[in-house]
Each structure stands twice: as structure tokens, then as C-alpha cells.
Design goal:
The protein is α+β, with helices and mostly antiparallel strands. It contains five helices and eleven strands; from the N terminus they run H-E-E-E-E-E-H-E-H-E-E-E-E-H-E-H. The chain has a domain of 131 residues. The longest helix has 24 residues. It is elongated. 22% of the residues are buried.
């Protein structure tokens, strides 16, 4: 074996060892988040979303969701799915602050933030979080659990899902919806 081949193999082994060391050290920078809601979807019977003086209440009866402020509206099932598939699956990643005087900066104080409360069938509160959307970071939100001082950054921007407009969650029934309902009732 010539000296050139020896030096090449030593250099290759050194590069490989540096690669393994780099991969191992990069693992310490991986963010491990924790979802804000880890219970079963079937345990949720009421969701209350509020911002300032506006609020919307979504209530489940059996498998059907309705809006208490507009019970004649037909609920948009895809919006309900987004609550469970995205909003309640958002993860707390990084602790930003534990100082109450910084809440306003991140939009998570009681008056600036958007609140979500989730209740079970016995009307027990399962969770209550306050979301804020202050700053230039459009990919993340800030979140604080009610009665906690810790403010976290989330792994996803879900602020827009905390909408208090009834038309975001439901639609007015159309004439065709009413006539289809009548035909179904007449058939039975």
C-alpha cells in the first residue's frame, strides 16, 4: 500500500468520524414539543372561543356540532376537524418568558389574547389557553395556559383558527338544503 492510499484512507476515516460527531451534536438542537391537548376527541363536548367581548360556543350533541349563537346555521365540519387536527395538536416548543410583565409584548394577556376553552360532557374544563400573535414571526404563535405565567412559542401558526365569527364556523341553510330535508322527511 502506497503512502497516498494510506493518507487518503486516514483522511476519509477522519471525515467520517467528524460526520458522526456532527450528527450526534445536532441531536441536542432538536426541539421536542408537547401537544396542548392529548385527550381523545370524543371526550370534547363544548368549545368556547373568545376574544375581547366576542365569543363563539360550539356544542356537540351525539355526533353533531352546532353553534349556540346561531343554531340555524349548518356547521362546517372541516372547521371542526381543523380544531382537533391542527389547533389542539399545536405543540409548545420553547419557553419564551415566565414574567407576567412581558405578556402584553407577546399578546397573551387576558385582554389581548384569544382564548380557547374545551369542556367535557360534565362541563368540566379540560383546557384553557390564551394565544397571542404579536411580533414578526408569522410561522409561530405565543401561548400561555390560563393561571400560568409561562409563555411558550408554538410550532405552528394556528391563530387564525381562533375565529369568533359565526360565518367562519357555519353557513346559513340554502333553499336546496331545506328542500332536501323535506324530501328526506317525506320519504320516511
Amino acid at each position: 500500500m502506497t503512502d497516498t492510499v494510506k493518507y487518503s484512507l486516514i483522511a476519509l476515516a477522519a471525515i467520517f468520524l467528524l460526520f458522526l460527531y456532527n450528527m450526534n451534536s445536532q441531536k441536542s438542537y432538536t426541539l421536542n414539543g408537547q401537544a396542548i391537548f392529548d385527550d381523545n376527541r370524543g371526550e370534547v363536548f363544548r368549545i368556547l372561543i373568545s376574544e375581547n367581548d366576542k365569543e363563539i360556543e360550539l356544542v356537540r350533541t351525539d355526533t353533531t356540532w352546532s353553534i349556540t349563537q346561531a343554531d340555524s346555521f349548518i356547521i362546517k365540519e372541516n372547521q371542526i376537524d381543523k380544531i382537533f387536527d391542527r389547533l389542539l395538536k399545536v405543540e409548545k416548543e420553547i419557553l419564551i418568558t415566565s414574567k407576567e410583565e412581558k405578556w402584553e409584548k407577546f399578546g397573551v394577556d387576558d385582554s389581548l389574547g384569544r382564548h380557547i376553552k374545551v369542556f367535557d360532557k360534565n362541563d368540566n374544563e379540560k383546557l384553557h389557553y390564551i394565544f397571542g400573535n404579536s411580533g414578526q414571526d408569522w410561522q409561530h404563535n405565543y401561548i400561555r395556559k390560563h393561571n400560568s405565567t409561562d409563555v411558550f412559542r408554538t410550532n405552528d401558526n394556528v391563530y387564525f383558527l381562533l375565529n369568533t365569527n359565526t360565518t367562519y364556523w357555519g353557513t346559513k341553510p340554502t333553499q336546496t338544503d331545506d328542500s332536501e330535508k323535506m324530501n328526506i322527511e317525506l320519504d320516511n
